[in-house]
DNA sequence: CTGGACGGGTCAAAGGTCTA
DNA sequence: CTAGACCTTTGACCCGTCCA
């Protein structure tokens, strides 16, 4: 940006003489910037008629306009500002009658400053220090250790993967309706991408393996829903899967349609209304991911802190636009709700033998393929021993709860994470 | 350093009258408010009527009207437009907590822009360059009618009721452990109080009756949990019910203990750590209450707006403490989760004939005693007809979902609300 | 039809940057 | 560190359109 401007400016400077002429002829006051093509040292040659106004009242150098109340050159302008800002006190080594002109103006600061005042400069016109213009300090927006750029990069990875697999047409009407098989296929794809996503977060990688598995599993359903909701933002009433199949408002299987409808109503619509940005979405995913509750985590405090950082980043990303941050966070309860309904549906389908699920899906979404259930939520549950008898009967006890009750150690998932 | 400079400068501001003279004599144009020592010439227009309303919401300078959604001065107006137009990204050199007032507004552009958003400016109101002649008058989002004082008053009612019934001793150890009967008794008490609470909110009372019933029922479980968590804040590992019974960490029935444990871990502990205030709690309850999702509401937009107002109030109540607002909102997902687990537990107990529940409890918590289930979430569900076949079999389909699927019209609850 | 509100634009004069 | 040439940002002021 800045570079571009500079280049433009350099390219345009040939026109400055012409402009200068125009300025002089039409008495256009100093212009300068906007396009950068006009050089500010314009009204110089107009010494004859209006010479007084274009001369520096302090040193008789060419003035660049009025500054702090007196027509003055850039040198005296800067000198006055620095003197006032830094509250300098000078003293004259001679007689306080030094000549201040273009050549000798730097020989006595005391007399120069005095002449500034005499010429009409007012210290009140000097303002407080401002913000740095050069914002490209590359002041990496980092909260604690999580940085927005890492999250954005992770996000791109997740987003671009499927695009590489299948070049999409943007016409939603030509896409095929997903059956159960395609839904499962897409889910599996997305879950693998979730693992890839997580690997992009260094803070995740330095967690103990059990916690990594736990995090990946605990909210995998929410990630699927969140991802599909986002992918479907541009489309009306149609859910677009990662493998380019769609779920239309009607015509899909009942259970699928029900979940799809809720995704539309409770997630896509609000998100669309908010016009969620990439940054915001990246933060939201991270907040969902680092949920410290209910997962039997070994280091819940670390996870809690990561979520805290992520939510500060989200806050930042929303620029505190009135109410926006809250609206985004309030997406999470319905997200959780829809995700659970999806898991319930899957579980039921599984129980009724209606669908054959991949082992990855079973492990991540249903929490199966693990050792026997081991208590809820946190590792140090004092009532844990009492609970096993209930958890041991998943057929009668709702799977929502069983799902959150599994011990983390497992094969497939752990193997997928481990080689990182 | 910076502070020193400012202080030093303030010390130097004598001689303003002299300056004014100078201004007049030298025909320096009145530039007004920078230093405040020069009176603006144009103060004629709107100054008389409302001194308070003509203040810039961002920097407290004199406002020139509403710009981009917020009463603001010309400076903040221009700043916002430039920032949006040029897609500027600022960063704060400090802690993102810079003071933005008339004097210091130029010292941190990040914090100034942030405050613009916070004051209600919307980037959509900035038009694209100079082409869109369309007069999409940005409709005013009036920051609504909900007031914190009303919420606080409603809260006191709910809190004080049980205190009147039983003068408490503060010694937690002398209280009796609750059995299933006492838990149910307390629940019923609290649910009736919830109705009372809601009646204190005028905006609730002017909703259609069906929506009132729906709101009361949909999140009744969350209200119970939220209330009990708050009541238990002072105690360690003990849950205090509204009827003065307790649920100790051990020794209660298994199902009760499990929920109690999660309440402790996921709600009481975080809330205690935050030291939640009365205002914040009142707002949180209201946010939970006015959940626009998943309830078959007739006027979801009104409810959504009420929740929006409540969350703005919460934001205000947190006094901008870094991250506090987010932490409070992130209480909601675990609250929902625990509430559902409780409902599941109740449902199971009901199915197994282990507990005889009051009809109010059944209606509000389990969603029973109503007409047949009528589809999920929203009234205009296109797949609604397809869904009934699944919802009609609550015995096999998890009750979590059934619970959220009930139609609002019912007897007991409606009767309780109606005479208001 | 008129005046206030609120979009847009302008540009003098603030500010900051950066090399010598 | 200061000087000063050079570039950006600020905000007071003005214009045009819409609508009550």
**Percent helix range of chain A:** 40-55%
Output the number of helix runs of chain A: 19
Cα-atom radius of gyration of chain A: 33 Å
- List how many beta strands of chain A DSSP finds: 6
Largest sheet: number of strands, sense, barrel closure of chain A: 2 strands, antiparallel
Fraction of residues in β-strands of chain A: under 5%
Overall outline of chain A: elongated
Strand order in space, largest sheet of chain A: 1-2
Mean of pLDDT of chain A: 75
- So what's the oligomer here? homodimer
Q: Which chain pair has the greatest contact?
A: A-B, 82 and 93 residues
Q: What's the name of the CATH homologous superfamily of the domain at 148-366 in chain A? A: Retinoid X Receptor
For the record, the CATH architecture of the domain at 148-366 in chain A stands as Orthogonal Bundle
CATH fold node name of the domain at 148-366 in chain A: Retinoid X Receptor
The helix/strand class of chain A is mainly alpha
pLDDT < 50 stretches of chain A? 1-52, 161-165, 370-409
**SSE string of chain A:** HHHEEHHEEHHHHHEEHHHHHHHHH
Would you state the CATH class of the domain at 148-366 in chain A? Mainly Alpha
Termini Cα gap of chain A: 38 Å
Structure notes:
Chain A is an all-alpha fold and 420 residues long. A two-stranded antiparallel ribbon of chain A has the order 1-2. The longest helix of chain A is centred in the middle third of the chain and has 21 residues, at 254-274. The first copy, chain A, contains 19 helices and six strands. In chain A, α6 packs antiparallel against α7 (180-199), α6 crosses α12 (278-289) and α10 runs antiparallel to α12 (278-289). Mean pLDDT of chain A is 75; it is low at 1-52, 161-165 and 370-409. At the A-B interface, α11, α13, α14, α15 and α17 of A face α1, α2, α4, α10 and α12 of B. The structure holds a DNA duplex (20 and 20 nucleotides).
């Amino acid at each position: 940006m800045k570079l571009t401007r500079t280049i433009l400016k350099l390219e345009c400077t040939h026109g400055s003489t012409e402009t200068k002429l125009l300025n002089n002829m039409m008495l256009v006051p100093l212009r300068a910037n906007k396009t950068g093509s006009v050089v500010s040292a314009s009204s110089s040659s107009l010494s004859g008629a209006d010479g007084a106004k274009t001369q520096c009242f302090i040193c008789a150098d060419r003035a660049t306009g009025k500054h702090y109340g007196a027509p003055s050159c850039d040198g005296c302008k800067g000198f006055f500002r620095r003197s006032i800002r830094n509250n300098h006190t000078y003293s004259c080594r001679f007689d306080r009658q030094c000549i201040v002109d273009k050549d000798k103006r730097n020989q006595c600061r005391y007399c120069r400053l005095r002449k500034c005042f005499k010429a009409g400069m007012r210290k009140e016109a000097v303002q407080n220090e401002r913000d740095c213009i050069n914002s490209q300090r590359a002041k990496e927006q980092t909260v604690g250790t999580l940085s927005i750029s890492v999250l954005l990069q992770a996000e791109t990875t997740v987003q671009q993967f499927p695009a590489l697999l299948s070049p999409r047409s943007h016409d939603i009407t030509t896409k095929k309706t997903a059956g159960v098989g395609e839904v499962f296929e897409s889910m599996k794809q997305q879950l693998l991408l979730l693992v890839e996503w997580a690997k992009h977060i260094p803070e995740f990688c330095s967690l103990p393996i059990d916690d990594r598995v736990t995090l990946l599993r605990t909210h995998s359903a929410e990630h699927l829903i969140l991802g599909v909701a986002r992918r479907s933002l541009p489309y009306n009433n149609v859910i677009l899967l990662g493998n380019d199949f769609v779920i239309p408002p009607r015509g899909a299987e009942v259970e699928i349609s029900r979940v799809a409808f809720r995704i539309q109503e409770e997630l896509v619509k609000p998100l669309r209304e908010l016009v969620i940005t990439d940054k915001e979405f990246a933060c939201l995913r991270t907040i969902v991911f680092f949920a410290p509750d209910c997962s039997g985590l070994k280091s819940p405090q670390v996870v809690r802190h990561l979520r805290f950082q992520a939510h500060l980043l989200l806050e930042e990303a929303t620029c505190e636009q009135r109410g926006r941050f809250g609206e985004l966070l309030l997406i999470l309860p319905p997200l959780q709700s829809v995700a659970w309904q999806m898991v319930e549906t899957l579980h039921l389908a599984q129980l009724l033998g209606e669908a054959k699920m991949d082992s990855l899906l079973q492990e991540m979404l249903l929490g199966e393929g693990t050792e026997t259930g081991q208590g809820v939520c946190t590792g140090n549950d004092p009532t844990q021993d009492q609970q096993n008898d209930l958890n041991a009967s998943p057929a009668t006890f709702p799977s929502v709860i069983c799902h959150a009750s599994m011990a983390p150690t497992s094969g497939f998932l752990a193997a997928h994470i481990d080689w990182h």
